[in-house]
Design a protein that fits this description.
Elements: E1 2-6, H1 15-24, E2 29-32, H2 39-47, E3 57-59, E4 73-76, E5 91-95, E6 109-112, H3 130-133, E7 141-144, H4 152-155, E8 162-165, H5 167-170, H6 175-188
Parallel strand pairs: 1-2, 1-8, 2-3, 3-4, 4-5, 5-6, 6-7, 7-8
Length: about 190
Amino acid sequence: MKRIAITPEVALDDEAKYIVTILDSGWDYVHLRRPSATKNEMRKLIESIPQRYHSQLRLHGHFDLINEFNLGGLHLNHRCPNPPEHYNGSLSCTCHSVTETQIAIKYDYITLSPIFDSISKDGYKAAFTPEELKNIPQGNVIALGGVTPDNISILKNYSFVGFAMLGYLFSSPNLNDLKCRLKIIESKI
């Protein structure tokens, strides 16, 4: 299964170290999602991550930074719904309904959320019935929202090609705890 981490909206202490630890563990991508960050703050975050990992980073905003770094692509969402003109690199996209997933073929992958009750957003509850999840297209849909080691096995009942995590990973109080959480996740895949 494809594994994607999504950074929280607010910067963490040692965030670059968290990102490197996740990528060192073999995860496919880390999405840099910080809606309130300035372009310079995002640039500094990227610069604090070893260049060997830049191709595994995806931007949720400040898309023009793609021209400064060899990044893994752009992730489209309600705040940034379109790539820059003439951009022809890798794209992923956020979806919040099974109907929206029908656009999946246009993207490298899409995230569908919330699959489970969110860990990072209070009141953001699971939005899909098992019957609805049986209708997601095969090939490139990533489960997002409340994914934990305890519910990864449920995703295997559907056509998800992977999962994305935010709350479970970035609520780790320190790097040692994060490493333990990453090992637990691996044991459940």
